[in-house]
Amino acid sequence: MRPALLQRAIWLTGICFVAVIAAVAITRRDSVHGHDLPGAIAVPGTKNGYYTARAAPYSSTPAHSRTACGQPFLKTTEGVAHPVLPCGVRLYVRFHGKEVLTQVIDRGPNVPGRDFDITKALADRLNLHGTQTIQWRFAK
Description:
Largest sheet: 6 strands, mixed, barrel
Order of helices and strands: HEEEEEHE
Helix content: 10-25%
Strand content: 25-35%
Number of helices: 2
Structural class: alpha/beta
Distance between the termini: 40 Å
Strand order of the largest sheet: 1-5-2-4-3-6
Number of strands: 6
Shape: elongated
């Protein structure tokens, strides 16, 4: 077999492998209605497996109907804003014993000393009011 043909076959195999992995990941459900939630990645070197961060609720303004990640920003939108984590990254947020699977949907916060902004809907679900210390970790 010629080296160029072998190289193409290896690339095609790699692409197919990545496509299969992506298809398996997409089929996983993260609904609260009896479907399995993805596992969480524990933070190494901590006793409870979570990062801690300062967070506060925020809401959209009429001028901002979409988030920086392109999602519609409605009163029912649940998600977090973070200045560095990529859009769509799923993570677990825990506050006072309640843990919720959510994702990064926006950029921010622009307030010194705060790591996350949390949508009003998610803050209500967690019963988080004002700036608080939350715990979070990545979902698998």
